[in-house]
Amino acid sequence: MAVRSINIEHEIPSPLTYAVEVTIELDSGERRWCFFCTPESLDRFGDFLPNSTIRIHAAAPHMIVLSIVTQETITAAINELQRNGELQYATRPMSGTRTSRQCVWVFNGVKASFPSGVFTSRENAEAWIKEHNLEGTLTLYPVDQSAYDNAIANGWFNPKLPHQKLPEFIQRFTSASQEHYHYERQEKK
């Protein structure tokens, strides 16, 4: 299947230290999602291991790492993945329960232990983030279902190891497959 369109979800203010969400539409009408980042940006997002400043990035086959993230490098990478027959593996479908269930957007500030805002729309959340010049991650969560159960139900995660079924694992679980956006503090001019 050929790529019909590539939509980069927001501006890329720093091609060396930024991560960006990308939506791809195929000729068949199927929409797929992935995110691009640089090695340097991996230091700026992801979950912290408990009681540490160590970041973890796991179970994210739709994370594509480039040395520089620009519209040109993203387009070239998607075209190369398609040419090699790897686009389906490197992206996830944008179908599933999120379109048929109620969801909320949850904002977690950098180094925060708890969320600082919950919103019914991405637009409201982004207006608040911009108003206060915040830095952190905005993630879409289903209502009345955990991130763990939602990831399993959508086929984004399959617990294979015994510890992946323990309360300690489940209560810390997040999924890179959830729709999420990263925000960096904007320098005041």
Mean pLDDT equals 85
- The low-confidence parts are 96-100
Shape label: globular
Q: How many β-strand stretches? A: 11
State the domain count.
2
Order of helices and strands: EEEEEEHHEEEHEHHE
Q: Report the structural category.
A: alpha+beta
Rg value: 17 Å
Could you characterize what this model shows?
The model is unreliable at 96-100 (pLDDT under 50). It contains 5 helices and 11 strands; from the N terminus they run ββββββααβββαβααβ. Strands 1, 2, 3, 6 and 7 form a 5-stranded mixed β-sheet that branches. The chain has a 4-stranded antiparallel β-sheet with strand order 9-8-10-11, covered by helices on one side. A two-stranded antiparallel sheet has the order 4-5. It has helices spanning 71-83, 87-90, 122-132, 147-153, 167-170, and strands spanning 3-8, 20-26, 31-37, 47-48, 55-56, 63-65, 92-93, 103-109, 117-119, 136-142, 180-183. The protein is of the alpha+beta class. The protein folds into 2 domains: 3-93, no CATH class; 97-183, no CATH class. The relative contact order is 0.15. A hairpin with a 6-residue loop joins strand 4 and strand 5.
Name a few traits of the molecule:
4-stranded antiparallel β-sheet, 21% helix, 5-stranded mixed β-sheet, 2 domains, 5 helices, single chain, 189 residues, alpha+beta, 11 strands
Task: Give the topology, please.
Blueprint: E1 3-8, E2 20-26, E3 31-37, E4 47-48, E5 55-56, E6 63-65, H1 71-83, H2 87-90, E7 92-93, E8 103-109, E9 117-119, H3 122-132, E10 136-142, H4 147-153, H5 167-170, E11 180-183
Parallel strand pairs: 3-6
Antiparallel strand pairs: 1-2, 2-3, 3-7, 4-5, 8-9, 8-10, 10-11
